[in-house]
Amino acid sequence: MTYDQSWMALGLVGGLEAGAISLAVGFLLYLILHLLNRYLEWSEGLRIGWSYFITLVLTASGDLWNLFYFNYTSGLQSLQLLRAKLAAVHDPGHIGMRVLFELLGAAIGVYVAWALCSGDWKRRLTRRH
What gap in Å lies between CA 19 and CA 88, rounded to an integer? Predict the structure, then answer.
């Protein structure tokens, strides 16, 4: 699912913005699945896996598709077609970095939500020896 990225910055800052969006979506999705767990009765692994997968579908799928398309398809033999496709992509020079930050942001968001919801985190953080 591609969302409007025209407001995002270019380069490293744009990658960090995309990663922050993925982090927030991953965090919220894990919290939603955690709250729905009384009805779903899923294990933690299922909640983590599905929240990560849905986060990537919502936030990174457009950039992942563009990265795949420009690297592995042979349908770009026309220079005019290549220019048209590149014009439709936001910051094509840093698409790999943006995908990396989206993948990392989704993983960190789901992990932080899992750590907060797994219980007993306050005791682990304030453990005295």
Answer: 21
